[in-house]
């Protein structure tokens, strides 16, 4: 299982940049393995992301804003879904992961 975070490396939106940084920062801090996919550089990846998002998550006009989060081919959610799972302390379930990685080894 690979967590994929679809981001836009070149965006003029400060909010999108902050949302992307929040997701990536959380994953790194919790030692959750993930792959960043830059939709501004890889057109086929951008198209794949759009095709694999649920219809109710796609805006009526324009494109869905990054970050969008997947576990392999399974859509997990967008930043708002991620933020809510963080508030509810259910991020690992949100990501489709069974348990939090052990950090005891790195604390020794």
TrEMBL record:
* Protein name in the entry: SH3 domain-binding glutamic acid-rich-like protein
Organism of provenance: Pagothenia borchgrevinki (Bald rockcod)
InterPro entries assigned to the protein according to its UniProt record, in alphabetical order: Glut_rich_SH3-bd, SH3BGR, Thioredoxin-like_sf
Q: Which family does it belong to?
A: Belongs to the SH3BGR family.
Q: Which UniProt keywords apply?
A: Nucleus, SH3-binding
Q: Name one GO molecular function term.
A: SH3 domain binding
Keyword Nucleus included in the entry's annotation: yes
* Location(s) in or outside the cell: Nucleus
């Amino acid at each position: 299982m690979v967590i994929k975070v679809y981001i836009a490396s070149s965006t003029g939106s400060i909010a999108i940049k902050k949302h992307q940084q929040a997701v990536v920062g959380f994953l790194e801090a919790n030692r959750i393995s993930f792959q960043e996919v830059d939709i501004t550089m890889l057109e086929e990846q951008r198209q794949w992301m759009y095709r694999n998002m649920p219809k109710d998550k796609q805006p009526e006009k324009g494109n869905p804003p990054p970050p969008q989060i997947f576990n392999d081919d399974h859509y997990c959610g967008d930043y708002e879904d991620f933020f809510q799972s963080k508030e509810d302390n259910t991020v690992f379930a949100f990501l489709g992961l069974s348990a939090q990685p052990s950090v005891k080894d790195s604390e020794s």
